[in-house]
Amino acid sequence: MQMTDRGLLALVRHEGIVPGPYRDVKQVWTFGIGHTAAAGAPDPATMPRGMPADLDARIREAFRVFRDDLARYEAAVLHAVKVPLEPHEFDALVSFHYNTGGIAKAALTRHLNAGDRAAAAAAFMGWLKPAAIRPRREAERDLFATGRYPAGTIPVWSVDRNGQVDFSRPIRRLTEDEALALLRPAGMPIPRPSVPAVPTEPSIGWFARLSAFFSTLIRKA
């Protein structure tokens, strides 16, 4: 089972895109769409710092790395969940796991495997650290429960040579069609290699929203 196109777009939209290495809130070097060295190559700590000379090429690389990473998260969800899933439920669970790394230990997984989908949906809201992650978790819960997908453009953020991201204003916004073209090059299905169902480190795509929130407070001060 793989994520749907709409699920992929929702996940990338939640994460945002940073076309250079940056330090997340835990000071872990990260690249692109929430990629860290824990997910495999490339190691963001060894990548050229700052904004690339060819932004388009680096965005394409971010999507290529994301496609490679995604197979691991999909496999981990399928390994943890023992009941059949609807496509929108699977999309929501992979988005949750990509952000938290917690699918194997989450209460929502236990509820789901016990056949209680209502309790599983409610348990999404047990993962609310930091508080700024709430909108994403609500969107994942609603997607799981109702099949309602979020919509909108996908932000691309700038980053300096010290790994600091400027979340005050995106340098570009990708349309859904542009993102899908990058997710499925030349209109072909995404090649997903067979990989062990081993969860990777949590992603920190919520960092974009948290930093933007604090930036707004600073500007208003």
Walk me through the structure.
- The protein has 221 residues and is mostly helical.
- It has one domain (5-220): Lysozyme.
- Helices cover 46% and strands 10% of the residues.
- It has helices at residues 5-15, 55-80, 87-100, 107-113, 117-123, 134-146, 176-183, 206-220, and strands spanning 18-23, 29-32, 35-36, 154-156, 158-159, 165-166, 172-174.
- It has a 3-stranded antiparallel beta sheet with strand order 1-2-3. Strands 4-7 form a two-stranded antiparallel ribbon.
- The radius of gyration is 17 Å and the shape is globular.
- Mean pLDDT is 86; it is low at 187-204, 206-210 and 212-221.
Brief rundown of the structure:
The chain is mainly alpha-helical and 221 residues long.
Q: Tell me the radius of gyration.
A: 17 Å
Average pLDDT, all residues: 86
Indicate how many domains the architecture comprises. 1
CATH topology: Lysozyme
Distance between the termini: 48 Å
Say how many strands there are.
Answer: 7
Shape: globular
| Element pattern in H and E | HEEEHHHHHEEEEHH
> Residue share in helices?
40-55%
Tally of contiguous helical segments? 8
Write out the strand line-up for the largest beta sheet, numbering strands in chain order: 1-2-3
Largest sheet: 3 strands, antiparallel
CATH class: Mainly Alpha
What structural category characterises the helix and strand content? mainly alpha
Share of β-strand residues: 5-15%
The appropriate CATH architecture is Orthogonal Bundle
